[in-house]
Amino acid sequence: MTYGGSEHGELALSVIYLAQESGGFHPPSLADFFPPAVLFEGTIFELDRLMLIRLLMTAVLLAFFFVAMRSPKVVPRGIQNIGEIMLDFVRVNIADEVLGKEQGKRFLPIITTIFFTVLFLNMSGVIPFLNISSNARIGMPIVLAAVAYIVFNYVGIKKYGAWKYFRSSIVVPDVPIALHVLLIPIEFLSTFILRPFTLTVRLMANMLAGHIMLVLFFSATQYFFFEAAAGMKVFGVFSLAAGLGFTLFEMLIIFLQAYVFALLTAVYIDLALHADSH
């Protein structure tokens, strides 16, 4: 799912136009994703606001599951119950659904790790005073896509051997020999280039667009209410309503991006496991 719908674009453009007509309003830009260094400036350990949010949400994720699973009960209660419901969702709806129970159990750790990493890093986009997902900058999406890429290729190579796996992945059986000249490059591009690329770009682009839209609506609301001319203040009500509505939509996107990323990882693993049947 993306933010490319014409209704959202028209609404955003209307907000920008109205705010800029009153003078002094500056809409959000890509500079939001490259803030100045906060710690260790000029070193390889340099941390800016986005990296600190990434570390914070990682700590929150680890703390959540540590507390939830530190002394599990047979009949779960409280935070353990929430943790088990979330884990069961990934197991039943992604791992077992795509890979089957045996292989689903085998790859559940990597699939749940990807799902919850994407989910928690995305959640900071709607948390007050954080207000940005660190997945909106390409670094972390690349790392997650690389993990998925390494896993599904490792699985295929381990099962079939490198030659048979790569051959089975790019050679379409039962087609005229002449068509292989066209199909082999297409299959290679689709399997080994586009898969990690689309995983990366889909996650980054959705989180980037969501942040820009939310910042646009809420910064415009503040501008209309506190800085714009008296006749323009009424538009602050509309931009506030749009911002609140879009926050709910963003929460749905946050979950869907985690689900889609984990689901596609499971699908790619399954395709690697059955490369010889393509």
Biggest beta-sheet profile? 2 strands, antiparallel
Strand arrangement in the largest pleated sheet: 1-2
> What is the helix content?
over 70%
What is the arithmetic mean of pLDDT? 87
Shape: globular
Count of domains? 1
| Class computed from helices, strands and strand pairing | mainly alpha
Strand content: under 5%
Give the number of DSSP strands: 2
Helical element count? 7
Radius of gyration: 23 Å
| Contiguous uncertain segments of 5+ residues | none
Head-to-tail CA distance between termini:
28 Å
Keywords for this structure?
278 residues, mainly alpha, 7 helices, 2 strands, 72% helix, 2% strand, globular
What does this structure look like?
This protein has 278 residues and is mostly helical. The chain has one domain. The chain has helices spanning 6-21, 49-69, 78-123, 139-160, 162-170, 180-226, 235-273, and strands spanning 37-39, 47-48. The protein has a two-stranded antiparallel sheet. The model has no long low-confidence stretch (mean pLDDT 87).
